[in-house]
Structure formats: C-alpha cells, structure tokens
Design a protein that fits this description.
It contains 13 helices and twelve strands. The protein has 317 residues and is α/β, with parallel strands linked by helices. It has two domains: 130 residues, CBS-domain (Roll); 141 residues, Roll (CBS-domain), CATH 3.10.580. The strands form four sheets. A three-stranded mixed sheet has the order 1-2-3. Strands 4-5-6 form a three-stranded mixed sheet. Strands 7-8-9 form a three-stranded mixed sheet. It is flat.
C-alpha cells in the first residue's frame, strides 16, 4: 500500500463537510424569486429542497437548472419576434411572461438540466468512494452527507474535496508533482465559443453539450477566458435577459469583476505544470476547470474538478 493510499483510506465523507458549513435550503413550494434570492444572497451555486410534510430533503436546484428555464424563454422570445415580425421589447416580454417563470416551483425546476441529481451518502462513506462518485464516470457535483437516520449534516462538493486535496499536498504521490507533458496526452475535446458569440447562444452550448463551462477564444483561437454557470449566477437580475443578448466578451466584462480580455491566467495552465500545481490554481482561484493551452495560447485540453479528483484517486490504487 502506497503512502498516498494509506493517507486516504481511513478518511470519510463526514470529514469533507466544511467546519463552518451552514445549511441553506428552500421549501419545496419556493418559486423562482425565492430560489434566486437564496442563491445570490448566500453566494452559492445550488440549494437543497426541503419537504416540511415528510421532514426530509427531496431534491436540489442549481444554476444549471435555472439556465434551462432562462434559455427556453430566450428561444421563445425569438419565436415571438418572428411571429410579430419585429423585435419585442424585453421589458414588455418579461412583464407578460414572468408569471410563467414565477409560477414554477423548486420541485418543478429541480434537476431539469439532468446534470446534478440529489444524492445522499452516509457520513461513514469512505473518502475514496466519494472521490469515485465525483470522478468522471459518475461526475456528481455535490452530495448531501447524512447520519444513519438520514438527518442532514451538510453538503459536500467537488470544490470541498479539491480544497482538502490542496491542504494535503504534502502527502501527494510522486506522479502528482511531475510535469504533465511527461505522461499526459491531451484527449479531452475543448468546447469553445468566440468572444463575439451572443451570450444566449453560448449558454445554449452548455446545455446541449451537457457541460458546465466553455472556453472563450478570440479570432485567432487563443484563450481569453471561460464562460460557466457561475457567470450566470453573477447576473441573476432583471437585466439578465438583456445581458444574454450581449457578445460573450461584453457579458463577462459586466458580470465578472476579475475578467480582463486576453488575460486568462486564472483559468489556464500548460503541460509544463503538474497536477499539484493545478490543484493549487483551482483552489486559490475558486474556479471549476483549467484549460491547457499550447505555446500559442490556444486551448488543447481541459481539466475539470472531476478529472483532477479522479486522477488523484487512481494514484491510490
């Protein structure tokens, strides 16, 4: 048994729950306004749904679920424009259609993206089993950790595990410190959009490709940033629909205070870096993926949280 395997083996899901964790949740009857308030006020990407009658959690709503609703309405507006043979004012459209959105409840929207189902795990689940669930084959983004009586202890996300791994770098196996070019052959297809692409169309790609983020490239194909569901959360306001009509570069400039065109160091790496370096970048920059770029700055691969978790889990086998 390797030192890395010895280190991971006794650890459990319970130990991955952040010490300062505060459980934020919504009622199953919560409408979109209440969901948005819970997400934005608490700066979170997802929120569990509680059923007061059954006295248990029954689901989870995340930003990707809301994205589906928003993109659907954007597409409907295009149809309305065609029928009306003239562009419909967004404010008028929202006034007319907001009841459709607001009438939807948390249970209606939960996992509509089919990307993030609600899953409970027992607090004693081995960490390595949890890492398997967060790996690419299953690719869960978060789980609810519970006691044997199914009482909720807290949510554990891929980001929480990455933070733990970052704090545990001194135990990493040797391969985690090797340059990736010594063993890695780029194989992940990089999904990208032009910085001039309309934002609604870019978000549509997230849904159709079933991914949480895409690379943003300039006219030469060089990486200048990343567009993800996190960016959608930053613009959850009544200006959201108008913002979706902007080119991606303009949208990111409005919603991401750290975005500067042609400065992509927060979301990129090279094959001369190691997995240990990637873990540090993911943790420190609070991002969910790292694009591998070549010497010209063009994306050639992408490493998501699940890729990194899976790699380090396999190194303990």
């Amino acid at each position: 048994m390797s030192n890395w395997e010895k280190f991971l083996t006794p650890l459990t899901a319970r130990q991955m729950v952040p010490k300062n964790f505060r459980l934020v949740y919504i009622d199953k009857t919560a409408d979109v306004t209440e969901i948005l308030k819970a997400l934005t006020k608490n700066n979170i990407l997802s929120v569990p749904i509680f059923d007061p009658e059954e006295k248990r959690f029954i689901g989870i709503v995340d930003v990707m679920d809301l994205l589906g609703v928003i993109i659907f309405l954007t597409e409907v507006k295009k149809i309305v424009d065609v029928i009306a043979e003239k562009p419909v004012n967004w404010s008028e459209y929202i006034t007319q259609e907001q009841k459709v959105i607001m009438d939807a409840t948390a249970t209606d929207i939960a996992n509509s993206s089919e990307k993030n189902p609600y899953v409970e795990v027992y607090e004693g689940l081995p960490l390595r089993s949890l890492m398997d669930m967060f790996g690419k084959d299953v690719n869960l983004h978060r789980v609810m950790v519970t006691t044997g009586e199914r009482n909720a202890i807290g949510l554990v996300t891929q980001t929480n595990v990455i933070h733990f791994l970052h704090e545990s770098k001194s135990h990493f196996p040797p391969k985690a410190f090797q340059k990736m070019r010594e063993w890695m052959v780029p194989k992940n297809q990089v999904i990208s959009v032009s910085n001039k692409t309309k934002t609604s169309e870019a978000f549509q790609q997230l849904l159709s490709k079933r991914v949480s983020g895409v690379a943003v490239v300039d006219g030469e194909g060089k990486l200048i940033g990343s567009l993800s569901s996190t960016d959608l959360k930053r613009s959850l306001s009544m200006n959201l629909f108008a913002d979706l009509l902007l080119p991606v570069e303009n949208y990111l400039s409005r919603t991401d205070s750290g975005f500067k065109p042609h400065v992509h160091s927060l979301v990129s790496c090279t094959l001369d870096e190691s997995i240990a370096d990637i873990v540090t970048k993911l943790n420190n920059n609070k991002v969910h993926r790292m694009f591998v770029v070549d010497e010209k700055g063009k994306p050639i691969d992408v490493l998501s949280l699940c890729d990194v978790i899976e790699f380090l889990n396999h190194q303990a086998s």
